[in-house]
Amino acid sequence: MKNRLKILRAERDWTQAHLAQHLDVSRQTVNAIEKGKYDPSLPLAFRIARLFGTTIEDVFQYEEGQT
Amino acid sequence: MKNRLKILRAERDWTQAHLAQHLDVSRQTVNAIEKGKYDPSLPLAFRIARLFGTTIEDVFQYEEGQT
DNA sequence: TAACAGAGTCAAGCTTGCTTTACTTTTTAT
DNA sequence: ATAAAAAGTAAAGCAAGCTTGACTCTGTTA
């Protein structure tokens, strides 16, 4: 699962900590997701997409057979 | 989190077991998700949307402050 | 009414998502 | 070059997603 978090964040000049606050998760969680260490839960994916004003499909790109 | 699984399944006249097979999860998992017992992982949500030829947002409706 | 298919549910166990705490490395600005 | 901010990383622990196995409760439909 790839994602555009780093780009979306950069476009708004937000830090991982700032993003974490607005998503109500820890900074480490944002970092781990951004680095592709693991996938967010579906509810968190919704909150991320909503915060960036876009869709889950726009933020995350699923590729068959990786997880 | 609400979902349209039962409807999408009915439109295609698929059983929970049939759906489970094509998603590569157990029948109990399909049942639990359909009944809203818990949310699917993000990868599984992608596979569900893809199988039904639609988007995650079309299958699942997130509502603030439930999970 | 008996039998079968589909749906619902429960328990135990493993894996993954997320937390806190704490530390190291990289980037930015002075 | 130094200091501060941001990013990266790791370990331990709890919560959520998913599994298998087994059992119940619905409809059908023969």
Could you describe the 3D structure shown?
- The structure is a homodimer of 67-residue chains.
- By secondary structure, chain A is mainly alpha-helical.
- The first copy, chain A, is 57% helix and 6% strand.
- Chain A has helices at 5-12, 16-23, 27-34, 42-51, 56-59, and strands at residues 2-3, 60-61.
- In chain A, strands 1-2 form a two-stranded antiparallel ribbon.
- The longest helix of chain A has 10 residues, at 42-51.
- Chain A is globular, with a radius of gyration of 11 Å.
- The first copy, chain A, starts with a strand and ends in a 6-residue tail after the last strand.
- The model of chain A has no long low-confidence stretch (mean pLDDT 96).
- Chains A and B meet through α4 of A and α4 of B.
- Chain A binds a DNA duplex (30 and 30 nucleotides) through residues 15-17, 25-29, 31-35, 37-41, 44, 67.
**Main sheet: strand order of chain A:** 1-2
The description of the largest β-sheet of chain A is: 2 strands, antiparallel
Tally of helical segments of chain A: 5
Largest inter-chain interface?
A-B, 16 and 16 residues
Quaternary state reads: homodimer
Task: Provide the residue-averaged pLDDT of chain A.
Answer: 96
Q: What distance lies between the first and last C-alpha atoms of chain A, to the nearest angstrom?
A: 8 Å
Apparent shape of chain A: globular
Give the low-confidence spans of chain A: none
User: What is the SS-derived class of chain A?
Assistant: mainly alpha
> Measured on Cα atoms, how large is the radius of gyration of chain A?
11 Å
Number of strands of chain A: 2
Relative strand content of chain A = 5-15%
Could you give the order of the helices and strands of chain A?
A: EHHHHHE
User: Helix coverage percent of residues of chain A?
Assistant: 55-70%
Keywords (chains A, B): DNA-binding
Protein name (chains A, B): Helix-turn-helix transcriptional regulator
InterPro entries (chains A, B): Cro/C1-type_HTH, Lambda_DNA-bd_dom_sf
Domain HTH cro/C1-type (chains A, B): 5-59
